[in-house]
Amino acid sequence: MKPPKILAVASAVDLDFRYGCTPAWWQLWKGLYEAGCDVIVTPYRGRAVESPWWRTAPNPCYTEGETFARARDAVARLKGDRYLRRAEESPEDSAADRAVREVIWRWVTPRWQKHLERLLERERDVDAVIVFTVPMSHLRGIPTALREKFGVPVVFYDGDVPMSLPEFGGMDTGFNYYHGADPSEYDLLVSNSEGGLPRLRELGARRAEAVFWGADPEFFRPLPVEKELDVFFYGYGDKFRRELVKELVGEPSRRLPDVDFALGGGDFRGDTGSARELGTIPFNAFSPAISRARINLNITRRSHGTVPWSSTCRPFELASAGACIVSGPHEGIERWFEPGRELVVVGDANEAVAAYRDLLADPGRAADMGVAARARVLDEHTYLHRARQLLDLVGIGTPAAARV
């Protein structure tokens, strides 16, 4: 039996862009490799990055993409900001957005169609094309063309639901995926959110299924480093979670002056109290940073936290690293972890302060929670689990040897 072959069209492969999903895609592609797949990755933004777990194909519009990114950055600087901000609720499809799409459809989309057709002709026996969080509207017409010409299923994998939906519009660093898009072009739309599936069907998806995030337990593992931080949160800014950052970091840091609060990442625009900002932490230093903290926070964005069973990467990564986790409200988190045993869930500053005091005073309990959380990941939430599920949904199946 030949290995399943997947052509992956990725939003980016280069971790320097700091796209939130890219590290997770790395782990999922590694999981597909471990499941016996031959994966070819071609990036929509930036250059291709080689690895031991996948082959690469170049970005056919690298120059155009980087030129556009520089132009966006320049406009943001003229406005006195790092990003072109969008409203957090129902951001409009502006005239500028529509004009950008028209340019993309005339110039970028045809070149990507030719690029993918050449790859499918060269590889001959690709079992599925999977698009990983590339703005759906930018590839309009391509899934239909590939299916008609090659008879290959084309899948869209949206790892940002519900934040990517038109009523939220995604992060300020990217595009609103679904404006001008036609989800019905895809054979399958895979989502990180089970609660978001009905909305995806409303938008036109013919078939929508959920595959939750997970963690690679070889990368995210407990490390024998000294505990240097008391309460640690890492995230890409506080958009959609500003009030929760105030409740779990800002206010508690003022009420617990002897507790060391630290933030990694950047673009925190709200109330962070007396927490120290550590800046960007490279991905290869993230697992050690988790292990250095006595308590690690899971602060989910409002869109994910309120739509049931909308998974994010962070709780799985923290659990895989054996962290003691304190989480803000996250509808359906008990689907993945047992509150009180594998993590603690708090709803406001009062509950957060009480949890921090209890756990910092009882390091044995904190350690036991981390052990239990990692065991749960190993049993249910690795990317090998997720890869097998994805292959089954696509209809490829997993080679028998990889199921051992």
Write a structural description.
The protein is α/β, with parallel strands linked by helices. The chain folds into two domains: 5-214 and 384-394, Glycogen Phosphorylase B (Rossmann fold); 229-381, Glycogen Phosphorylase B (Rossmann fold, 3-Layer(aba) Sandwich), CATH 3.40.50. Helices cover 38% and strands 16% of the residues. The protein is built from twelve helices and 13 strands. The chain has helices at 22-34, 62-78, 95-123, 142-150, 197-202, 242-255, 283-292, 302-306, 313-320, 349-361, 363-380, 383-394, and strands at residues 5-12, 38-45, 55-56, 128-132, 154-158, 188-191, 208-210, 229-236, 261-266, 276-279, 293-298, 325-327, 344-345. The strands form two sheets. A seven-stranded parallel sheet has the order 3-2-1-4-5-6-7, sandwiched between helices. Strand 1, helix 1 (22-34) and strand 2 form a beta-alpha-beta unit. Helix 9 packs across helix 11 (363-380). It is globular and about 65 Å long. The two termini are 16 Å apart. 47% of the residues are buried. Residues 400-404 have low confidence and may be disordered.
